[in-house]
């Protein structure tokens, strides 16, 4: 059995996902980072971006995370985000509409949020 | 029907209508308390993880940050008061306002100038009526606060604390809210949010003397702390908003329950009075008839002779 780490993905108002994983890839302000079991204790600032969790059953969970933190210690990984959505919770058509609207209004933040959502949905 | 009886009947009708309304409000509040409690529980994992992270940075590095260092000579403080938009909640709002006033008084005695920030229409009305200055206020979301609302409230407060005191910034941030202890107990209390007392936060995060690991900070401890602290404040304000909402619903439920009970008692008393009035009327009618009949009988007996 491969080594596992426990992952908790929590948003400000709910727990989004929790379970065992073998690899977590997230984007911090200084670049993508992959965390495997036994990693050195880590505390980093997350960029908006998709987070990929490879579960111990061999599946993949992708979530769109908008800002937040990654913290890893004692084989426990917490992903804290103000807003986080799993890729299967994302409504692609609605997000595309949002992206178009954000582009039309020149709202850079909304555009990036919609873009992250779409990328997470595409990676599922 | 006699006039008195009619008056009683009318009052009973109006009290029963009131009772129906308060009963409905009680049930609505009861269901909302449960919902609000669930929201408090749902926000707990984020808050605990965030507290852990703040402690990790605070104790694992020697970073100095304006949000964790105490000003040598604090002269200005901000007080955030959480009240509700609607009343009918017993002493809920007046307790919170009283706590805020006591805190303000204490801070002023310590020689600090106090800026008041208010959430909820009740608090705003109280301060406006007394013509006191409000630095900023927010209304309209106290029943079901969302994280976005907490962010909206936190933004100007964080901005104020980051500014230099001479430019209108503040040195301290206090919050007054109603803690939801249980369905029956809610206490208004004040807490200092900033500057952070790291030892207190550490105690909250790891009460059993657990030793936190040495973290690798990405990109650097300063940057992490910079990003963490505003989030920490937001999450604390969010938690306070949720607790206040739960407390408000619990207070409403209790107030409405006693209103319903009182209405029930009033209906009982009034129906007894109405029964007595009806009985008195009947008795009077009977004695009138009997009196009339015997007077008639006397009269006819006299004319026979």
From TrEMBL, chain A:
Please give, as recorded in its UniProt entry, the membrane topology of this protein.
Answer: Peripheral membrane protein
What the entry lists under Pfam families is as follows:
ATP-synt_DE_N
One cellular-component annotation, GO: plasma membrane
Spell out the SUPFAM superfamilies in the cross-references: Epsilon subunit of F1F0-ATP synthase N-terminal domain
Its subcellular locations are: Cell membrane
Give the GO molecular function terms. Answer: ATP binding; proton-transporting ATP synthase activity, rotational mechanism
Coiled-coil region: 76-112
Q: In what residue span(s) does the ATP synthase F1 complex delta/epsilon subunit N-terminal domain sit?
A: 5-83
Major localisation: membrane
This protein's UniProt keywords: ATP synthesis, Cell membrane, CF(1), Coiled coil, Hydrogen ion transport, Ion transport, Membrane, Transport
Q: How does it assemble?
A: F-type ATPases have 2 components, CF(1) - the catalytic core - and CF(0) - the membrane proton channel. CF(1) has five subunits: alpha(3), beta(3), gamma(1), delta(1), epsilon(1). CF(0) has three main subunits: a, b and c.
Q: Which family does it belong to?
A: Belongs to the ATPase epsilon chain family.
**What is the annotated role of this protein in its UniProt record?**
Produces ATP from ADP in the presence of a proton gradient across the membrane.
Protein name stated in the entry = ATP synthase epsilon chain
* Organism in which the protein naturally occurs: Streptomyces lucensis JCM 4490
Q: What is the lineage of its organism?
A: Bacteria, Bacillati, Actinomycetota, Actinomycetes, Kitasatosporales
**Which gene carries the instructions for this protein?**
atpC
Automatic annotation (TrEMBL), chain B:
- SUPFAM superfamilies annotated for this entry? ATP synthase (F1-ATPase), gamma subunit
What InterPro entries does the database record attribute to this sequence? Answer: ATP_synth_F1_ATPase_gsu, ATP_synth_F1_gsu, ATP_synth_F1_gsu_CS
Source organism's superkingdom? Bacteria
Main subcellular localisation: membrane
Gene3D superfamilies, sorted: 3.40.1380.10, ATP synthase, gamma subunit, helix hairpin domain
Location(s) in or outside the cell:
Cell membrane; Membrane
Which keywords fit this entry according to its UniProt record? ATP synthesis, Cell membrane, CF(1), Hydrogen ion transport, Ion transport, Membrane, Transport
The record gives the membrane topology as:
Peripheral membrane protein
Under the heading Pfam families, the entry gives:
ATP-synt
Looking up PANTHER family in the UniProt record yields: ATP SYNTHASE GAMMA CHAIN, ATP SYNTHASE SUBUNIT GAMMA, MITOCHONDRIAL
UniProt subunit comment: F-type ATPases have 2 components, CF(1) - the catalytic core - and CF(0) - the membrane proton channel. CF(1) has five subunits: alpha(3), beta(3), gamma(1), delta(1), epsilon(1). CF(0) has three main subunits: a, b and c.
- What family does the database annotate? Belongs to the ATPase gamma chain family.
> What role does this protein play?
Produces ATP from ADP in the presence of a proton gradient across the membrane. The gamma chain is believed to be important in regulating ATPase activity and the flow of protons through the CF(0) complex.
Which HAMAP family is this protein grouped with?
Answer: ATP_synth_gamma_bact
What name does the UniProt record give this protein?
ATP synthase gamma chain
Its source organism is Streptomyces bangladeshensis
Q: Which gene encodes it?
A: atpG
